[in-house]
Amino acid sequence: MTKASSASVQRPYHHGNLREEMIRCGREILSSEGIHGLTLRSAARMAGVSHGAPRNQFADKEGLLAAIATEGFLELVAVRRARLSSGMTAETRLLYVMDGYIEFAIEQPALFFLMFGPQIVGKEHYPDLLAAGNASYELLHGAVKDYFDELGVSERFSELKVRCAWSAVHGLSMFYSDRPTGPSLIRKVPFEQWRQGLLSFILAGLTAFDESTTPATTRSVKKVVKPHAKKRPADDTGAA
Predict the structure, then answer these.
(1) CA distances in angstroms from 38 to 54, 65, 126, listed in the order given
(2) Tell me, what CATH number does 207's domain have?
(3) Is it the case that residue 237 has pLDDT exceeding 60?
(4) pTM, whole model, 2 decimals?
(5) Cα separation, 15 vs 105, whole angstroms
């Protein structure tokens, strides 16, 4: 069967679950063809409905993308929670939460890039998406806090340290979603060594970082920041 004939095969759906079927088809197209191949029409064609039918569920393509991203965040929470057990130490739980984040990006790169990329411009218009993203971030937040509690240094826990941990894990994860856009590094490091090294680096850094001391280099950088530089909103969690 040719690609063209395969794409034209219509799959029946049960009345009432068109939204779920559109999301499923959208994810399939996203995974196989990328974001540029995903449209309301292409998803409707795969779902076996008319081009106009999805308009009752999604106003436009961004609405479908937001629904797919929301499902992605819910899965990101679920797969990491599934790794945890009550008998684990807080350190082990934190490692599993962070490593599960990286694993999700590796296994579902196109979905991960959609969740955090620029394709959904008006994220603030999708409360379910924001809630799912915040739930993912709160999972990491709780794991970091429990880690400090277990060490007996609860007073050293801070939101800044959670952000730093998330930034490091997210940075590595983004290398494996979509296509890396940075330079091709000459000095190579095996991925698993890089992955485990990063997690160890974060654990050490969380307790070693003293927020009361600002490096001289940081103070110097602040002096040259342009006054008109755009600032990020104070409540921007980034949705881990």
Answers:
(1) 14, 9, 19
(2) 1.10.357.10
(3) no
(4) 0.81
(5) 33
